[in-house]
Every structure is written in structure tokens, then in C-alpha cells.
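User: quick one, fold this
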Amino acid sequence: MYFESYKSFLLSDTLLPDIFISEYMPSMDGNFVKVYLHCLFLSKHNKPISTKEISKKLELDIETVKNALLYFENIGIVTKKVNSSSYILVDLKEMEIKKIYRIKTASSPEDAIQSSKRNKKRNEIIKAINNKFFQGIMTPSWYTDIDTWFDIYKFEEDVMYALFQYCYEHHGLSKNYITRVAEAWHNKKIKNNFDLDNYSIECQKFNDVRGKIVKKLKLNRNLTEYEEEIVRKWVFDYKYSFEIIEYALKKTTGKTNPNFKYIHAIISDWNKNGLADKNQIIANEEIHKKQTAEKTSQTKNNNQIPQHKNFEQRTYDKDFYTQFDEKL
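Assistant:
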């Protein structure tokens, strides 16, 4: 005897794990989500199907379907059988459990709890992050990641919250993006609110100068990464105000296709000569102009052709002229 359950197509369901919605869907291309949901639906029935059939069914071009499957492989939610065209959908719940309880290369949830007990403020900040950015349903892997970031980057609790706030307001809460920002802050020696405030002031100063440069040069585009690096040098290494930078920008007037390399050469020369403000730069230019004028004048005098009466004339006596009268 055996029992068999049967549901018609109209009454059947395809279960989607919440882990997919919270961990993978936010950063996934919309068409890729369609492909994954369709694959999840097909996996219930163990039916063979080709990428071409999926393409027709979902009204997507075949390259999009292939790219979606490749993407699923890369992030580990689908595996491809060896020497086969078959794919296996990974159990996302099981995979998440393995992340949490794997041999420790990062902090485990238990370690995170112990850490929170040792530091009440950290516990409060993690709770605040959960409530503010995850609506109170942050998945377990986030707890271990946050605890690991605390250990790696040595951020104080307020800085960790500020990190999430910054990422949320700019490009969203992708773990890769948060890690990149955390790395950048760590490289800037940011640990506490005082460090972060100073860094924010520097960023604001740079953004203001960058915006003014784009406007003055009428670029109609953002600066390239290379150009931004040059501007950072002017602002933070040379410590030049926009007044000095603008004075250099004006020197591009009349130039054919002036570029940042040309402007950088001018500003770097000022810095090399120890010129700290606009008045010093102008005074130095006046001295240079005077020296150039004197040099030009001296060169002109040295090469000048002798003019009328600039030489001694020959003299003749009375007998010299008499000889001409006798001939006449």
C-alpha cells in the first residue's frame, strides 16, 4: 500500500526561499530572476529542457539565458553536472546553514553573541542596523559578517552604523560594496567618529573643488578616475585652495584642447617652487616676466646692426679736392 498526493496545476505552488529574496535577488538582474524562478518551477517536475526552450518560454534572447545560468554558477546557487548539460539547483537553506556552522574562517554566530555580551553597545548597534536597514529580518550571515568587519577593521560601533548608512544612501547594501567602502575607510585610518568627521570634511572639500572644476571647464561630464586623482593631489598634497586652482584653469584660455596634464604641470611647478598662495604666484610671474624682458632686450642689443653715424667718418685735406678741379 502507498499513498500518492496529487494536485492539479492550478493548485500547485513553487516555494521560493526567503534567503533568495534577502540575499540574492536585490543585486540580481531582473531577467536573471525570471530565469531562476522558471528553473525552480521546472526542478519540481524533473523535466529536461534546453536554454533555447527557456528563451522562448520567457521571451528572452538565448544569450541572456546563458549568461543567467553562468551567473548562477558563479555565485554558487546552481551547479553544473560534470560532462553534462544538466544543472542542479542548490538548496539555499542548506547552503546558508553551512555558512553559519562551517569551520571558522570568520566569526560564528556564537562568537558574535559572546562579543555582544562583552560589548553592550555593539549589540545595540547591530540591533539598530537590523531595524533600520533590514526591517528587523536580517539573515544570520549578516551577523557573522558584521562581527567579522568589527574584528578586521577595528571600527567603533558608531562608525559601523555610519558605514551601513553611507552604503544604503549610495549604492545599496551589497556585501561586496560594503566591504569596498570599509576597506577604503580602514586605509584612511578611520576608527572612531572623530576620524570619520575629519574624513567627511576632506570628502566634502574635494567634492566642492571637483564640482567647481567641472563647471568652470564646462566639461558636461564627470571627471575620470585619473583626473580625480590629480585633483586630490592639488587639494590634499599641495594643499591648494580653489582660488589657486582656478587661476591655473584660466591659463587654459585660448589653448587648443587643454587637458589636466597641462594644468597639472602648471600647478606642480608652483608647488615645486614653494608658492603657497595666489599673491606669491603672481609676484613670481612678474619677476619671471621682467627677467624674460631684460634677457630679450639684451639679446636684441647684441645682435643689432650699426646705424648711420655710429662710426667714425674719413676726413680729406684741401689738396684732395683741388686735384678734381684741375682735371675739369
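User: anything notable?
Assistant: Residues 1-5 have pLDDT under 50 and may be disordered.
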